[in-house]
Amino acid sequence: MHTFQRKEKLKSKKVFEDLFVDGKNINEFPIKLIYRKVHFEDATPIKVGVVAPKKKFKDAVDRNRIKRLLREAYRLNKPLIFNNIEGNFAFLFLYLGNRLPTFNEVDVAMKNLFEAFLKKESHESNN
């Protein structure tokens, strides 16, 4: 269950643009989650993209490290989401901090983001 397969990666340019235009978001410093309910042809429940800003992190090595940490935190915590959602979602994780994070910081923020997401989604589906 703790895998991050190729089919779970968000690759569609159109979905990326749609996320920025009319996606909902949740902040849990140092990560921001932008998400949107979508329909995927391959029936994958969630597709994920990760972003580290080039403006704050000039070195590609640093951006890649941040993205690796975000993907790993997602991979380890995704059972929290998979068992509790209905429908398909596109997720985009943006790193907001100004310095390189530790894995622990990212992991805690990811868990808090997932809790907030589930709370918000269950609230919206009940209305």
UniProtKB/TrEMBL annotation:
InterPro entries named in the record: Ribosomal_Su5_D2-typ_SF, Ribsml_uS5_D2-typ_fold_subgr, RNase_P, RNase_P_CS
Domain of life: Bacteria
Plastid as UniProt keyword: no
Signal peptide (residue range): none
EC number in record: 3.1.26.5
Pfam families for this protein: Ribonuclease_P
GO BP of this protein: tRNA 5'-leader removal
Swiss-Prot/TrEMBL keywords: Endonuclease, Hydrolase, Nuclease, RNA-binding, tRNA processing
Record-linked PROSITE patterns: RIBONUCLEASE_P (PS00648)
GO cellular component, one term: ribonuclease P complex
Reaction equations catalysed: Endonucleolytic cleavage of RNA, removing 5'-extranucleotides from tRNA precursor
Gene Ontology molecular-function annotations: 3'-tRNA processing endoribonuclease activity; ribonuclease P activity; tRNA binding
Its biological purpose: RNaseP catalyzes the removal of the 5'-leader sequence from pre-tRNA to produce the mature 5'-terminus. It can also cleave other RNA substrates such as 4.5S RNA. The protein component plays an auxiliary but essential role in vivo by binding to the 5'-leader sequence and broadening the substrate specificity of the ribozyme.
Record text on subunit structure and interactions: Consists of a catalytic RNA component (M1 or rnpB) and a protein subunit.
Family, per entry: Belongs to the RnpA family.
Name under which the protein is recorded: Ribonuclease P protein component
Native species: Flagellimonas alvinocaridis
Biological classification of the source: Bacteria, Pseudomonadati, Bacteroidota, Flavobacteriia, Flavobacteriales
